[in-house]
Amino acid sequence: MSQELNVMRPVAKPPARGGRSVWRLLSLFGAVLVALAGLRIITGQDMLTDAGTVRTTITFAVPIAMAALGGLWAERAGIINIGLEGMMILGTWFGAYFAWSTGDPWMGLIAGVLAGMAGGLLHAIATVTFAVDHIVSGVAINILMLGAMRYLSILVYADVPGAGASQSPTTPRFPVLDVPFVADALGPVAAGGVPVVADLASLVIGLTTRMSALTVIAILMIPLTYLVLWRTSFGLRLRSVGENPDAAESLGVPVYTFKYIAVVISGGLAGMGGVFLSIVASQIYQEGQTGGRGYIGLAAMIFGNWRPGGLAMGAGLFGYTDALQIRGGGAAIHALLLLLAAVLLLAALWQIRHDRKGLAIAGVIAAVLLLAWYFTTDSLPRELATYSPHIATLLVLSLASQRLRPPAGIGKQWRASRS
Question: Which end of the chain has fewer CB atoms < 10 Å from its terminal CB, N or C?
Answer without folding.
Answer: C
